[in-house]
Amino acid sequence: MHARFVTLNLKPDRLDDLTEAMNNQLLPLLKKQTGFKDLITVAGPSRTKAVAISLWDKKESADSYNSTTYPEVVKMLSNFLEGPPQIEVYDVVASTLHKLPTLSAV
Fold it and tell me: How do residues 85-104 score in pLDDT, each as one tens digit?
């Protein structure tokens, strides 16, 4: 499983708008993407920083989303953001939410 961590710096007082857009626009779009498994979004106490963690079946699915659909997502969320999102990618090595194959070494 593969994870994309997208850090979002938000304009003041826009967290509720971001949450609504993610639930009503982004999540339905993600559910149509091949290999998409889950989206978890967390916000900091200042409500001006959020991290969206999307989980994918494999790296190739996340890469395909990144090159085809993600630019549309950035445009969709741009009214809520201060600057471009920062992306980091990881392999998921353990999860209590998803069954993963046993890994020999981490």
Answer: 999 999 998 888 766 555 44
CATH architecture of the domain 2-91 equals 2-Layer Sandwich (3.30)
Could you list the beta-strand ranges (E) of the chain.
Answer: 2-9, 36-43, 49-56, 86-91
Length of the chain as a residue count: 106
- CA–CA gap between residue 40 and residue 52 (Å, rounded): 6
Angle between helices 59-68 and 70-77 (to 10 degrees): 60
The answer to whether the pTM exceeds 0.90 is: no
Angstrom CA distances, 45 to 15, 21, 82, 85, stand at 11, 20, 17, 19
CB 58 within 8 A of CB 92: no
pLDDT at site 103: 47
